[in-house]
Write a structure and sequence with these properties.
By secondary structure, the chain is of the alpha+beta class. The protein has a single domain, classed as 3-Layer(aba) Sandwich (Chemotaxis protein chec), CATH 3.40.1550.10. Helices cover 34% and strands 37% of the residues. Strands 1, 2, 3, 4, 5, 6 and 7 form a seven-stranded antiparallel sheet that branches. A hairpin with a 3-residue loop joins strand 2 and strand 3. Helix 1 packs across helix 3 and helix 2 crosses helix 3.
Length: 157
C-alpha cells in the first residue's frame, strides 16, 4: 500500500478528532500484516472505499470512547449510555474521517467514493478480511482512550 494513501487517512483521523472534540490523538503504533489479520474490536465503524481505490477503512474503539464522541458531536451534552444516539455519533465520525480522507486523496489524484458506514459491536468480536490482503493497523491514544484505524486495500495501491 502506498504510504501516501495511508497518510491521508491518518491525517484525516487526526484532523477530525481535533475538530470534533478538541482532542489530540497521539500515534502509538503502526502494524503491517501482509497476508491479512484478524482484529479484535469492541465497536467498529466500517466504511467501504470504491472507485480508483477499493477496500475498507475501519475505526475501532471502545464504548467509553463512543460516549465521549457522542457528547462532543452533541456540543457537550452528556451521553452516558450506548444507544442510538451514541451509535449515530460513531457512524458520523467515520463519515467525517472518510470524507476528509477522500477529499485529500482527490487532491493527490486518487478519486474514490465511500459506502455508508456499518457499525458492529460485541465483547468478543473479531474482524476478518477475505480474501486475505495486506492491512495496516494504526493505533492512537488520547485523553478519551485508545482508537485504532485499520486500512485494507485491494490490488496494488
Amino acid at each position: 500500500m502506498d504510504s501516501q494513501v495511508a497518510n491521508q487517512f491518518i491525517s484525516a483521523t487526526l484532523s477530525i478528532f481535533k475538530q470534533v472534540g478538541n482532542v489530540n490523538l497521539k500515534k502509538t503504533g503502526l502494524e503491517y500484516f501482509p497476508n491479512g489479520h484478524k482484529i479484535s474490536a469492541g465497536i467498529a465503524t466500517i466504511l467501504g472505499i470504491t472507485g480508483a481505490l477499493k477496500g475498507q477503512f475501519i475505526l475501532v474503539l471502545d464504548e467509553a470512547m463512543a460516549l465521549k464522541i457522542a457528547s462532543a458531536i452533541l456540543m457537550g451534552v452528556p451521553v452516558t449510555t450506548y444507544d442510538e444516539v451514541a451509535e449515530s455519533a460513531v457512524s458520523e465520525i467515520g463519515n467525517m474521517i472518510g470524507g476528509e480522507a477522500s477529499r485529500q486523496l482527490h487532491e493527490i489524484g486518487h478519486i474514490c467514493d465511500l459506502t455508508v458506514p456499518a457499525i458492529v459491536r460485541g465483547k468478543e468480536m473479531e474482524i476478518a478480511f477475505y480474501p486475505a490482503s495486506p492491512i495496516f493497523v494504526i493505533s492512537f491514544d488520547c485523553e478519551w482512550g485508545p482508537v485504532k484505524l485499520i486500512l485494507r486495500f485491494e490490488g496494488k495501491v
